[in-house]
Amino acid sequence: MSDKNILVYIDQFNGTALPASWEAFTPAQDLAHQMGGEVISLVAGVGAKALAAQTFQLGAAQAFFCEDASLTDYRPETYTSLVTKIAKEHGAEVILFPTTTRGREIAAMTAIDLNTGIMPDATAVEVEAGKIVVTRPVYAGKLFVKAFCLATPQIITLRGRAFKKPQADPARSGTPVQVEAALPEAEIHTRVTGYAQSEGGVSLTDANVIVSGGRGVANNPAITPPAGLDDKQAEVWRAQEGFKLIGELASVLGGALGASRAAVDAGYIPYPYQVGQTGKIVSPDLYIAFGISGAIQHLAGMRTSKVIVAINKDPEAPIFKLARFGVVGDLHAIAPALTEAFRKRLGK
């Protein structure tokens, strides 16, 4: 096996891989072709073997998996030790992770273990003059820079939806290789005591369409809140009614509901819906922003969306500078009209 292999880490849970993991095989194949190495994959946890087998169709020359009991629950030290072990044993020149919550954590810890650097949130990966160069956003997404790492292996996290999943080749197949866990249970200091079920729906990071709301969702004095609420409670109630409107539009479009940090901080909607620098980084085909002014922090999380539509009562709102289409108006009138129009168009 070559000493210039490209290791792709598959982020998965209970046998279901996050889509961003499959997207990593596109730059992995390109790098392997230009560097003369091979693409190898690693899957850990429940259902790992079946997923490892699928990676052959996406270009993996070898696939490794581990379903040890110590990996049943996600604990960063168990997963990191396994990635480090495989990278060392199989000559990984580059390690690709999806920019997911788990992916970022494991990538950072692996970089420490291997005494190397990390290039996060890459939107493009190429080889220039023998060096692997990544394009990544800086200054809250206002600029994009090209960067390279002097140390090896080079660890790169890939922004979701920045790369297309390669076409699977059914003619390609192989036998995944089972590997042992790198860390015995006695040396693992973390314990998982339980889980809390989150709300269902379309994942923000994977959604093709996102409909988001900001502080403006509460600006509808025409509706009367229930009696007995103070001013703040009435504001939150109005906001929640506003989010119901845009949530209905998201549902009709088969998309996900999002929110700005201002809306989350105001208590209108829980944090998991937050889009922005301190929330989810998204890149959907269509991003519809209702009542969002366009703070830098929010724009950093969605500026790579393919098409941005902004609806705001303030014609001077900064988000209009980024949007391809803009509507100056009240979301409480526009959202229901759009929902009805899309229902007729989509036959829902």
Write the layout of secondary structure elements.
Elements: E1 5-10, E2 12-13, E3 16-17, H1 19-23, H2 25-35, E4 39-44, H3 48-54, E5 62-66, H4 76-89, E6 92-98, H5 101-113, E7 118-122, E8 124-128, E9 131-138, E10 143-147, E11 154-158, E12 177-178, E13 209-213, H6 231-252, E14 256-259, H7 261-265, E15 286-290, H8 296-302, E16 307-312, H9 319-322, E17 325-328, H10 331-346
Parallel strand pairs: 1-4, 1-6, 4-5, 5-12, 6-11, 7-11, 13-14, 13-15, 15-16, 16-17
Antiparallel strand pairs: 2-3, 8-9, 9-10
Helix pairs in contact: 4-5, 6-10
Q: Helix-strand pattern, N to C? A: EEEHHEHEHEHEEEEEEEHEHEHEHEH
How large, in whole angstroms, is the Cα Rg? 22 Å
Largest sheet: 7 strands, parallel
| H/I helix tally | 10
| Strand coverage percent | 15-25%
User: In the CATH scheme, what's the topology name of the largest domain?
Assistant: Rossmann fold
Distance between the termini: 53 Å
Integer average pLDDT? 94
Q: In the residues, how many domains can be counted?
A: 2
Overall strand count: 17
Low-confidence stretches: none
3D shape: elongated
- The amount of helix comes to 25-40%
CATH homology superfamily of the largest domain: HUPs
Q: What is the name of the CATH architecture of the largest domain?
A: 3-Layer(aba) Sandwich
Secondary-structure-based class equals alpha/beta
Describe the structure.
The chain is an alpha/beta fold and 348 residues long. The chain has 2 domains: 5-187, HUPs (Rossmann fold, 3-Layer(aba) Sandwich), CATH 3.40.50.620; 209-346, Rossmann fold (3-Layer(aba) Sandwich). Helix content is 30%, strand content 24%. The chain contains 10 helices and 17 strands. It has helices spanning 19-23, 25-35, 48-54, 76-89, 101-113, 231-252, 261-265, 296-302, 319-322, 331-346; strands spanning 5-10, 12-13, 16-17, 39-44, 62-66, 92-98, 118-122, 124-128, 131-138, 143-147, 154-158, 177-178, 209-213, 256-259, 286-290, 307-312, 325-328. The strands form 4 sheets. It has a 7-stranded parallel beta sheet with strand order 7-11-6-1-4-5-12, sandwiched between helices. Helix 8 (296-302) links the parallel strand 15 and strand 16 (307-312). The longest helix is centred in the last third of the chain and has 22 residues, at 231-252. The radius of gyration is 22 Å and the shape is elongated. The mean pLDDT is 94.
